[in-house]
């Protein structure tokens, strides 16, 4: 546990020196810096693994897990991105979602960037909210095929 505390302390210091200002003048420590602090404190004894849960051509959902020396999951995070929404997701939706999922997994361990959400997630809130209110086209039943039943939130579903 002391190694994890060391990582948390490193990130707290990085937050002061490398924090990026977000809306409302809040500082955010980027995932790259938090991952570096995680590796400096914990080395390669702890693992960060990612898995694509959904990639249906419209959206991607990734899961990141952090494991301890014994391979037990000690942290996790998920992220979803919609292909084509925003500049990054035009070409790199998987990479964007993976970074967000890793950031959320690190946050679940207390290695946060000042917010539990990633910088991209914070920037995307307004855009995603607008898209939910005014979708370009209605969802189809196929859009929901890869989701577990408890995550279904259909709206304007067409046959």
How would you characterize this protein structure?
This protein is about 40% helix and about 20% strand. Helix 1 packs antiparallel against helix 2 and helix 2 crosses helix 4. A hairpin with a 5-residue loop joins strand 4 and strand 5. It has a three-stranded antiparallel sheet with strand order 3-4-5, with helices on one face. It has a two-stranded antiparallel sheet with strand order 1-2. It has five helices and five strands, in the order αββαβββααα. The longest helix has 17 residues. With about 160 residues, it is of the alpha+beta class. The protein is flat, with a radius of gyration of 17 Å.
Features:
about 160 residues, alpha+beta, two-stranded antiparallel sheet, 5 strands
List the helices and strands and how they pair.
Elements (H helix, E strand, L loop, with lengths): L1 H17 L1 E2 L5 E2 L2 H12 L4 E9 L3 E9 L5 E10 L4 H5 L1 H16 L10 H15 L26
Antiparallel strand pairs: 1-2, 3-4, 4-5
Helix pairs in contact: 1-2, 2-4
What's the pLDDT, averaged over the residues?
Answer: 79
Poorly predicted ranges: 148-159
Number of helices: 5
- Total number of beta strands: 5
Structural class: alpha+beta
Q: Biggest sheet, in brief? A: 3 strands, antiparallel
| Radius of gyration from CA coordinates | 17 Å
- End-to-end CA span: 52 Å
Q: How would you write the strand order of the largest sheet?
A: 3-4-5
Order of helices and strands: HEEHEEEHHH
| Beta-strand content bin | 15-25%
Helix content: 40-55%
Tertiary shape = flat
């Amino acid at each position: 546990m002391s190694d994890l505390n060391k990582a948390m302390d490193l990130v707290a210091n990085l937050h002061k020196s490398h924090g990026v200002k977000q809306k409302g003048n809040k500082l955010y420590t980027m995932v790259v810096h938090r991952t570096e602090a995680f590796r400096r404190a914990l080395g390669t004894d702890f693992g960060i693994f990612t898995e694509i849960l959904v990639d249906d051509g419209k959206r991607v959902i990734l899961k990141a897990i952090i494991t301890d020396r014994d391979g037990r999951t000690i942290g996790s995070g998920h992220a979803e991105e919609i292909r084509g929404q925003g500049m990054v997701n035009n070409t790199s939706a998987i990479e964007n979602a993976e970074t967000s999922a890793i950031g959320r997994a690190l946050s679940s361990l207390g290695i946060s960037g000042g917010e539990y959400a990633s910088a991209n997630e914070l920037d995307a809130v307004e855009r995603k909210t607008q898209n939910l209110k005014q979708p370009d086209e209605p969802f189809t039943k196929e859009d929901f095929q890869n989701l577990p039943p408890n995550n279904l939130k259909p709206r304007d579903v067409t046959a």
